[in-house]
Amino acid sequence: MANEEAENVTGFTAEELIGTKWTDHVAPHSLEKMMHYHKVRRTNPEKVPSKYEVDLIHKSGEIRRSLLTIGMIPNSKLSIVTLIDVTKRFKAIEKLKESEEKFRSYIDFAPDGIFITDENGKYKEMNQAACDITGYSEQELLNMQISDLLQKSEIEKGVKHFQKVKEKGTARIEMGFVAKNGENRYWNIAAVKLSDNRFLGFVKDITDRKQAEEELHVKNCISNSFIHSKQEDFYKEVLDIFKKYFVSKYWVFWLHK
């Protein structure tokens, strides 16, 4: 016998279903599992699930995902089966998985570094580019948080930037970080809020650009001093420029080489 819901799930009328084998309505890739469960249920029913999903063949030929609940009729070898069509839910889950896989591939192969953090700034995911930029492995970064990578003088600015992302949903900033080898470098960070406990950050290493800008600034300062300073003051001003832009920034680095 078959009720109205069975007709809806299969597309066949109750009269058409009566006399047919249940195996005629099961998609080939689900049949082996169902046959195994069917056999074991008659000898050791507790060893197989009473509820599971399979693909059935609709009268139209369409494959429909169905949730089956199966029980044995006492003192018999007969089963009673209830069917629920869960095709829409199954397709929605599959689309979500596909979207997640696409998103993951975008992250993995993006040329810029990508970090995902929780609400406390702890790294939860990152791509290979992020590892290459920082010099740390994925496992090392998973045990770190945002402040662990920042130059000490930049930590307060980093905290304020992260708070802005939480409040505004997005923010961009240039900031200094420290690579695993101890080198002070710079990156541009574009961050967005995904949810209350997930934040996405795109980082691009801009160290070469920052150094080029600084070198250009030093040259301009020296040129201005040469043009506008008295000869006896020129060398003193040049020395002051080098102290300001090089000794103060790189003296500690030199000591460690």
Brief descriptors of the model:
alpha+beta, 3-stranded antiparallel sheet, 10 helices, 257 residues, disordered C terminus
Question: Can you lay out the helices and strands and say which pair or pack?
Answer:
Elements: H1 4-10, H2 14-17, H3 28-41, E1 51-57, E2 63-72, E3 79-85, H4 87-109, E4 113-117, E5 123-126, H5 128-134, H6 138-141, H7 146-149, H8 155-168, E6 170-178, E7 184-195, E8 198-205, H9 207-228, H10 231-255
Antiparallel strand pairs: 1-2, 2-3, 4-5, 4-8, 6-7, 7-8
Helix pairs in contact: 9-10
Summarize this structure briefly.
With 257 residues, the protein is an alpha+beta fold. The chain contains ten helices and eight strands.
Read across the widest sheet, the strand sequence of neighbours is 5-4-8-7-6
Category from helices, strands and their pairing: alpha+beta
- Helicity range: 40-55%
The largest β sheet comes out as:
5 strands, antiparallel
DSSP helix count? Answer: 10
- Our estimate of the beta-strand percent is 15-25%
Order of secondary-structure elements:
HHHEEEHEEHHHHEEEHH
Distance between the termini: 85 Å
Low-confidence stretches: 247-257
